[in-house]
Specification:
642 residues; alpha+beta; Immunoglobulin-like; 4 domains; four-stranded antiparallel sheet; 22 strands
Length: 642
């Protein structure tokens, strides 16, 4: 909870300072400092109890009570474990402001380094004080006990069209005798056609044993093109089996070669031009690939369809540098398969199929030279150009898994494509900006910046941290790389050209087909002054339309000091003689100075409208003069007051 006295004093002081400004160019019409009492649900910690069940520590950081009907969504290694309300998890009374509660879920985990995602209020049904920190990612390991872990190994049909599936145990203990689990078959993501209890036979861990299951009553294949999804879920908490990955094996009947569906995409001239692999043989387009490499890609595409986008971890693990040709080729083919899978099913709102994307942008997704830097003398590859920390992942599904939690409608579209025929691109870009504001920070010391720059962790390790720490980037250019790296896994390439070569492209966010979503400097998202806490500035206001971007940055009007202008913004500490000399001549900002001034002014204008906690903290720790200096601008050479 914020110190109330400091809040009131800060708001009053800033209100006085703001009232003195007669010509403030505000962007939103509203009164500063008028905050409603709202709840703010957040996850503070995720851990495993001694039995292996996931336990969540949640808190209400807002100023109003939170109803127990608030929902929480849980994913493990990308597998949706369902949604729970606080009351489902044992909460009996509303969560009061400042209250922390520990709640035990029914999800049992076994194994090492399991990726867990918790999404609070996934549909944004609750109006919260802070909407940007609703996703919590953690990496958990069960060191408490050995457990069996079931997966759905196969889904098929016999000669009479009766569906069956097979269970396998990849855990560290045998399935207990007489274990009961519940199985469901879902047709076309919409209809539960079978829901029954099965007694799993004893399965030894990591063996070649399978348990063959035929639904009761039997399920006969529907018309051609029917897709069946198999889910296995626990009957009760007493069933000591990890079922977190036995969730969503899919199969379309009749069973055909899934690769055939991608053949048309791969035959497109744009794709053939962009699909390049660099090796000792030079740069080879898809038509020049060896047949073995084409077969490897086909195998991955078949796996993706069956496992709903998941690929097994890269054999090289999370290693980033000095990758051999075989490891690098596998990582490259995983990325190509992921991009083709997204393009085929249109899961994300790129708005443009591959054939409509211009070649430079398409190469970002399909050309190995955008994924690796290659040293032909050593025949070694470095992921993400060898830059650290990496903003790409050896396994493309890991960042995509996080993105489907940040952008829940992507997951909804996977489940209900008829209900969600298209997605809003603006929402995608803004929600990702929200996540960066909530979970990414700039190093606050030279030592921390150097440590971030030497980090050998992959993007997957950065996103899913054992200690759930914030993501630390050395500078704003690194934040842009992270933003672009994440969007890459949604088939959304960044614009990398500009009509003005004098713009700072290392920090700019722009899109080739969405000119009204441009950010001059992504550093705005991690500016402590605008941190998303308290009366936070909406992330959407950090993006400029095409016209705004042109007026402020691409071709701004330069501010000048006219001769003998008594209102010229000249340093008050300069001598009277120097002031008279400068006022006697007309001087103007340079283009760079004007862009820097306009960039800062847009933030200051927003701070006149919103009162985030960063501004309050500045007031609480400083003086009234400090806040007035912040809100009125620098006493620069030519640049005017804000």
């Amino acid at each position: 909870m914020k110190p109330l006295l400091c809040l009131v004093f800060g708001l009053l002081s800033m209100s006085e300072a703001l009232s003195a400004q007669n010509d403030i160019d505000v962007l939103v019409s509203r009164s500063p400092g008028q905050l409603l009492a709202l709840p703010d649900l957040a996850v503070q910690q995720v851990r495993l109890d001694p039995e292996g069940f996931i336990v969540l520590q949640v808190t209400n950081g807002g100023t109003a009570a939170l109803d127990v009907s608030a929902e929480i969504s849980l994913l493990v290694d990308g597998h949706d474990q369902g949604r729970f309300t606080l009351s489902d998890l044992g909460a009996e009374a509303p969560l009061q402001p400042g209250q922390v509660a520990e709640i035990k879920t029914r999800v049992l985990l076994a194994g090492q380094q399991r990726r867990v995602l918790v999404v609070v209020d996934p549909d944004n049904r609750i109006k919260e004080e802070n909407e940007v920190h609703n996703v919590f990612a953690a990496l958990l390991t069960n060191d408490h006990r050995d457990l069996p872990r079931l997966v759905i190994d196969e889904v098929g049909a016999n000669s009479e069209g009766v569906i069956f599936f097979a269970l396998a145990n990849i855990g560290t203990a045998a399935v207990p005798v007489g274990s009961l689990v519940r199985a469901r078959l879902i047709l076309n993501d919409s209809f539960v056609v079978s829901d029954f209890i099965i007694r799993v036979k004893v399965l030894e861990p990591m063996s070649h044993q399978r348990a063959w299951v035929f639904p009761e009553p039997p399920v006969i294949i529907m018309p051609p093109g029917s897709e069946f999804q198999v889910q296995v879920i626990p009957v009760s908490d007493e069933v000591a089996i990890d079922l977190s990955t036995a969730r969503d094996r899919k199969q379309v009947f009749p069973q055909t070669d899934e690769f055939l569906a991608y053949a048309t995409i791969l035959e497109g001239p744009e794709v053939l031009t962009a699909l390049n692999w660099q090796s000792t043989a030079g740069v080879q387009s898809y038509g020049e690939w060896p047949e073995a490499m084409k077969n490897e890609l086909a195998s991955r595409l078949r796996t993706l369809t069956a496992w709903n986008g998941r690929l097994p971890p890269a054999a090289s693990g999370d290693r980033l540098r000095n990758l051999g040709p075989t490891d690098a080729r596998h990582i490259y083919l995983d990325h190509v398969a992921h991009a083709l899978w997204l393009n085929r099913y249109r899961f994300v709102p790129t708005d443009e199929p591959f054939e409509a994307i211009q070649l430079p942008q398409l190469q970002q997704l399909l050309d190995s030279r955008w994924l690796f830097s290659y040293n032909p003398s050593t025949n070694r590859y470095h992921l993400d150009g060898g830059r650290l920390p990496a903003t790409l992942s050896p396994n493309p599904y890991v960042p995509y898994e996080l993105l489907t939690a940040i952008l829940p409608r992507v997951k909804d579209y996977e489940r209900f494509p008829v209900i969600y025929p298209s997605l809003d691109f603006t929402s995608l870009v803004v929600r990702l900006a929200d996540w960066i504001r909530a979970y990414v920070v700039i190093a606050d010391s030279a030592g921390e910046a150097r440590a971030a720059g030497r980090s050998e962790r992959s993007l997957g390790q950065v996103l899913f941290d054992v200690e759930a720490k914030p993501v630390v980037m050395a500078d704003a250019a690194g934040v842009r790389r992270l933003y672009g790296g994440l969007l890459r896994y949604l088939n959304t390439p960044l614009q990398f050209g500009d009509t003005s070569t004098r713009l700072n492209l290392s920090r700019k966010i722009g899109f080739a087909y969405h000119q009204d979503l441009t950010m001059y400097d992504v550093g705005r998202l991690v500016d402590p002054l605008a941190a998303p806490s308290g009366d936070a500035i909406p992330s959407a206001l950090f993006f400029d339309t095409e016209q705004e971007y042109s007026l402020r940055f691409a071709a701004p009007n330069l501010t000048c000091v006219e001769p003998n202008d008594s209102h010229a913004n000249i340093d008050a500490f300069a001598s009277w003689r120097l002031q008279q000399t400068e006022r006697a001549r007309r001087r103007c900002n340079s283009l760079g100075q004007q862009r820097a001034f306009n960039y800062r002014q847009t933030l200051i204008n927003l701070l006149h409208v919103f009162v985030p906690d960063g501004l309050l903290i500045r007031r609480c720790r400083g003086t009234r003069a400090d806040i007035e200096a912040l809100l009125t601008g620098p006493r620069g050479y030519v640049t005017p007051f804000y």
